[in-house]
Amino acid sequence: GGTAARVRLFLPGPALDALALLVAFPELAAVAEEENLPGLLPDGPLADLARALIREPVALEEALARIAAVAEEPTLRRIREVAGAGRPPQEHVERELRKNAVKASIEAVRAEYDRLLAAVAQKGTPVPEDLATAVQIAKRRRADLDRRLRSLERPG
After folding, report:
1. pLDDT of residue 125
2. What are the two backbone dihedrals, phi and then psi, of residue 133, each rounded to the nearest 5 degrees?
3. Residue 67: which residues within 8 A CB-CB, separation 6 or more?
4. Integer Rg of the chain from CA
5. N or C terminus of the chain: which is more exposed, having fewer CB within 10 Å?
6. In a 3-state reduction of DSSP, which class is residue 118?
7. What is the reported pTM?
C-alpha cells in the first residue's frame, strides 16, 4: 500500500485496544479469534501479527518487540499504554476485548453503510435491488452489533 495504509495503521481505535489486550493477556487468544480480531485491523502487519499471536501466544515483551518492528510510534505507544498501566483487572479483560471488537465491527459497518448510501444516491431511483439488499443487511448487522455492545456494557 501507499501512504494511506501507513497513516491508517496508527489511528488509535477499538481494534487496536483489543490487540493490546491480546498482547497483555495471551490467554485471550481463543476469544480474539472468536471475535475475528485480525479481520478488524487494517490489512497488513498488525493484522498479520494478530493472527500470529492467536496461533502462538507469546510473552508481553516479545509481543511488544514484534509490534515495535512494524508499527508507527503512536500505535506502539497506545498498545504499551493499554497493555501496561491502562490494563483492566483480570476478571474484566475478556469482556473488554469483546467490547472493543464489537466497537471496531460497528465502525466497519458504519463505514460500509455510508459507502452504500453514497452509491444509492449516485444511482438515483429506482435503487438496484442488490444495493437495496446490501443496505438492509448493513442496517440489520449494525442493529445486532449495537444490541451486543449494550449487553456487554451492562454491569454484572
Report:
1. 86
2. -65, -45
3. 23, 46, 49, 75, 76, 79
4. 17
5. C
6. helix
7. 0.86
Place of cell 449494550: 150
Helix (H) or strand (E) holding 107: helix 93-123
CA dihedral 89, 90, 93, 94 (to 10 degrees): -150
Q: Residue 33: name the closest of 57, 68, 65 by CA.
A: 57
Q: How far apart are CA 102 and CA 144, in angstroms?
A: 10
In 3D space, the residue among 19, 143, 144 whose CA is nearest the CA of residue 81 turns out to be: 19
Note the pLDDT tens digit of each residue in 45-80.
Answer: 999 999 999 999 999 999 999 999 998 888 999 999
The C-alpha atoms of residue 53 and residue 48 are separated, in whole angstroms, by 9
In the predicted structure, residue 155 carries a pLDDT above the cut 80: no
